[in-house]
Amino acid sequence: MKLPENYLAAMKELLGEEYEAYLASFEEPKSLGLRVNTRKISVEDFLKLTPFHLTPVPWTENGFYYEEGEAVTRHPHYYAGLYYIQEPSAMIPASRLPIEPGDRVLDLCAAPGGKATELGARLMGTGVLLANDISNSRAKGLLKNLELFGIGNMFVTSETPEKLCRFYEGCFDKILIDAPCSGEGMFRRDPSMVKSWEEHGPAYYAQLQREILESAVRLLAPGGKLLYSTCTFSTMENEKNVEALLLAHPELTLLPIQKSGGLLEGRLPGCVRAFPHKLRGEGHFAALLEKAGEAEGPARAVERKKEKLPAELLEFLEQLPPSFRRQEQIRLLEGRAYLLPEALSPARGLRFLRTGLYLGEWKRNRFEPSQSLAMALKLEDFPQSLSLSSEDGRVMRYLKGETVELLEEEASIKKGWVLVGCDGYPLGWAKAAGGMLKNKYYPGWRVQ
Fold this sequence. Notes:
five-stranded mixed sheet, alpha+beta, 448 residues, 14 helices, Archaeosine Trna-guanine Transglycosylase, Chain: A, domain 4, Rossmann fold
C-alpha cells in the first residue's frame, strides 16, 4: 500500500522509534470482532450458547474476537440481535462513557450504530437515547440496528448538531461524539481511506470537529460527561482539538480514561490512544470531559395526556407486559402507534426517523404488530411463542420469509399471532392457522 509522504512524516514524528513497528503492522491480519448485546443476553449465557470460537477483547467486557471464515452474519443469533459486528478498537468509546440508569444520552454522529447500540443496551430500557446522524440515508441503517438490538427508548434524528441545540440545549447527561475524521487509523483495514485523506486531510476535519464539539457543549447538561473519539492519529484532530475546547470552555474538565489491553496514554494526559502495533485492533483516540455543575439525577418523566386508542390496539396491548401498554406514553400517527420514552419529548421542527418504539399499525379493523416490537420483547412476554433451535432448518426458512410448518408436538399453538424466536430469543412475528405459520417477518430484513 502506498501511503502519502506527508502522512508518513507525521507518523514518524508521532511515533519516533516505534515508527517501523507501526509500518510492519500493515502486514498483520486484520482483527475481527463482535460485541454482545447485554440488553438481551448476558455475556456468560451468550458464551454458553454461541457456536463461534471467541477470545475476549481486553478493553471491554462484552467484546470478543472471532476467527476469519466464521459465518457470524449468517447465523440466526445475529438476526435475533444478540451481537453486533464491530472492529475491536471501535468498542473503546462507548465502553468509556459511564452510562447510568435514567440518563438522557445523545450519540451525535451515530450511524451506522456501533456505539449507539451499546449505549442503548446499557440504558437497559431506562432514560432515553437520542441517536443522530446528519446523513438521512445512513440514519436509516442506524435505525435498523437499534431496532434489531431491541432498543425502544430512543429517538432517531437526522439533523445538524446546531439545529439540535435549538431544541435540546443543556438537556443530555451523557454525549458521545465519534466524529467524522481523516480516518488514518483505518488505513490498514480499509486502503480506500487513503484517497479520502488526500482529498480532505486533518485540517479539513479538525475545523468540522470543533464545530461539532461546540454544539455538544451546549447540548450537555451541568454535571454531564462528553466522550470525544476519532479513528485517526492526527494530533490536530485529537489532542489539539481537546486543548482548544478546554481553553474555550473553562467549565469543562478532562477526566482520566481507564487503560487496559494495550491502550496508551495520549499526548494530552487523560486521553487514550490505540495503535495497531500495540494491540489487536486499529487506530483510535478518546477523551472524556465533564461539565461543571450539579447533575440533576435520573430524568423526570414527561407529563403527557392519554390519547383515545383504537379497540384493536388496546386488545392487542393487553397481551403485553405493563411497560408496553402505558397509555399516556402511546402516540398515534397516520394509523401507526408509538411508545414514546418517558424521559424526553420529540421536538416539532426536527427531522425524526423514529420517535420511541414503533408498536405497529391498525388497518381494516385489525392491529398488526411491528418487527421492532418483536425485537423489544422477550419470548415469555407474549401468550403464544415458538422457539426454534438454531439447528432447525425452519429458522432460516422463516428468516427468508417462507411459510413454516408446525410439528405435531407444536399443535398447542392456536390460530392467531405467534412470536417466533430462536434458542429463546425473538426473531419476529407469524400468524398461526391450519398447522402452519404464515410468515410476518419484516420483508426489508429477510435473508437473501
